[in-house]
Amino acid sequence: MTDSTTPPPAAPAPAPGPAQTLSLISFIVGLASFLFALIPVLGFLGGLAAVILGFMGKKKELAAPKWMWLVGIIAGFVAIAINIIFVIVSIILPLILVASYGTYGY
After folding, report:
1. DSSP string across 12-38
2. pLDDT tens string 66-99
3. What is the distance between the alpha carbons of residues 52 and 40, in angstroms, rounded to a whole number?
4. N or C: the chain end with fewer CB closer than 10 Å?
5. How far apart, in whole angstroms, are the C-alpha atoms of residue 61 and residue 21?
6. What's the predicted TM-score (pTM) here?
């Protein structure tokens, strides 16, 4: 016979999932830096942060999903490359145009 005033035993708390904070942040920052790759400082620094966090997540968070840190690393490298190409083109192209304009004696 059970006492009706005694509460039922509490269920055990669920176990926490695998740590995936660095991988998740790398994923988010990598995609954001890929979207903002044409903004010189923001795209480069965001891409750099995504690459660093992605490699840290790969090393420290073994149970985290592989795709998270992998997308962060790839998107970060692509954002860095696009950013460098954009900066080079935006600096060199005006110089070429000014140099070619000056040779015609206008």
Report:
1. PPPPP----HHHHHHHHHHHHHHHTTT
2. 999 999 999 999 999 999 999 888 888 888 888 7
3. 19
4. N
5. 8
6. 0.74
Cα–Cα distance measured from residue 69 to residue 61, given in angstroms and rounded to the nearest whole number: 10
Residue written as tokens 């073994």?
62
Task: From 29, 32, 37, 33, select the one nearest 85 (Cα to Cα).
Answer: 37
Token pair 């840190």 is found at 69
Give the whole-angstrom CA distance, residue 106 versus residue 101: 7
Q: Quote the radius of gyration of the chain (alpha carbons, Å).
A: 25
8 CB-side CA count, 13 A: 2
